[in-house]
Each structure stands twice: as structure tokens, then as C-alpha cells.
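User: Run a structure prediction on this.
Assistant: Running it now.
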Amino acid sequence: MLKSYVMITGAGGGLGKAFVMECAERGWNLFLTDIDKKKLNGVAKTCMDVYGVDVISHECNLSDEKARNDFYDYIKSNSMVFTGLVNVAGIDCEGAFEERKIEKIRIMISVNIMATVELTHAVLLKRDKGREFIIVNVCSLAGYYPMPLKAIYAASKRFLLDFSLALREEIKGSGGKVTALCPAGLRTKKSVIKSIESQGFWGRISTKNIGYVVHKTINDTLKGKAVVIPGVFNRFIKGLGQIIPRTLVSKLVKMRWKRTRSIVKET
């Protein structure tokens, strides 16, 4: 009988690693991927040493189409089956749209949208039939708003949110569960922490502990929850944003990000 795995992308990063450890603690066998081979192997070894689960790791540059196709071929050639997928890998970027190089825009869209969609399709085709199947797509609270200075990022997360909700309806009749995680601030790396701190009170109140977010997300996914927005304040902001005209929301967001960027440049 083949072993079943939960695939986690972006496994070498802060949020990805937290998902890895949470899933390993639950005794799930894992298939991990990341662009950084050194970080990936380190996370995999820690998992096996601490939790004793079966872990397979395979590096992949998800922004590259050929690399993605080679990755799918690897899955097929090893006759792997899956009980879950956690799509963590993603790229964030701040700055005016016209200042972005088109190559960087293509990379963001490739990772945030194309890779997520393709991986989800590939893993669903290798689903362990007869067993519950879960998908967690890491979206963002940004997906609820038009966001000047983060236009492509926010729009890509909106795509993932809508994709998750639609797919949830498609597969729930066969034991599939899909959850969109929409966090605000998460202290994942130095640049993100700097950005959060530059927002002062609003940055602190919207930021949640990564361990808490991951644990809650997996629990809520197993319960069949469609969307997870960690934090009462963040859920309030999401609700407020839905009753205010989107043109006004966009204007307010622009004011906030311009102020944040000016503070970051000064420090």
C-alpha cells in the first residue's frame, strides 16, 4: 500500500516551516518543496528527527515553467499519492506598478497564480481515493481590497481567494476541503518585520503569532471552514472594507502605504 503525503510548498520559509512542523506533529507524512535546497533539506531533517514522520523533499523554482513541469513528472514517475496540499509559496512586492520590471511581474504572477493552480491540479489528480483530502491556499487580507503600491500582489491574492471558494464547492461532495488563509501581518523575515514595525500601533494590532495562525488554520480546515482570517481586529477590518466604497478603500490604502514606505526609507 502506497504512503499518502501532504505537500507543502515554500517549506523553507518562515510560514512554510511553521506549517511543516504543525503537520508533522499531527503525524502526517510530508512532501516538501522550496526553491532553497539548503533550507528545504534542513527542515526535512528536523521533521524526521523530531517527529519521526516520512518526509520527501524536492527543490523546485516555481516561477520557471520547465522546472514546474519537471516537478510534476517527478511526482508521476514516483507514483505518489496525496491527502493534502498547503500552498504557501508566494511573492510579495511593494512599489508603483510602472516602476516594476516586467520580468518581476511575470515571476510574481507565475508563483502566486500559475504555480498554485498547476500544483493544485497535479495533486488532485494524484489524490488518495477514499480518504479525506485538504487544501490550504495562503491568500491574504490584501485580497479583499484594491491596493495601490501592491496592485499585482493584492490582485493575485484575490484570484486565489475566489479560486479557493469555487474549488471548495466542486470537491466537497467527494470528501475534499479547501480553506483560504487570509492573514494580515506575519513576522516571517526581516523586511516584513521592518514593514510591520513602521506601521506602529496598526501594524502591531493586525499582526498575529505564526504558530497560532498555522494551528488554527489546520484545525479550521479539518472542520471544513472556507476562510480563515486570524484576529478579531483583522476580521473587523475586512468587514469594514466591504461596506466602504472600493474607490475610497483604494484611496485610504494608498495613503497608508505611502506613509509606511516613507518611514521605512527614513530608518
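Residues 200-204 have pLDDT under 50 and may be disordered.
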